[in-house]
Design a protein that fits this description.
By secondary structure, this protein is mostly helical. It has 3 helices and no strands. It is about 55% helix and about 0% strand. The longest helix is centred in the C-terminal third of the chain and has 25 residues.
């Protein structure tokens, strides 16, 4: 699933974000038919907050970031930081 209809196939959602979005869409179908997710106690609830189209390009770009690649970047930074700490410890 691509991120919030941002038309960028390189942008992806995490599994949790996909689940939240799917639950939100299911809830919208239920609402259209006179029900809600809350009517079904065994179903999980969505944490998804729909994007309100305001035409602000900066906000749209900020909301359309690739969560997966950011996670990979953070992990790489953590590993790099750990290696620097290990090398620094060996020097002293």
């Amino acid at each position: 699933m691509t991120c919030r209809k941002c038309d960028d196939p390189a942008v992806t959602l995490s599994k949790d974000a996909q689940t939240d979005r799917a639950l939100y869409e299911i809830d919208q179908v239920f609402i259209h038919n006179g029900h809600r997710l809350e009517d079904f106690l065994t179903l999980p609830k969505s944490n998804y907050v729909p994007f309100v189209h305001g035409g602000n390009q900066l906000v749209q770009e900020e909301l359309a970031y690739d969560q997966y690649s950011l996670t990979i970047d953070v992990d790489k930074q953590k590993i790099g930081s750990m290696m620097i700490n290990i090398a620094h410890t060996k020097l002293f």
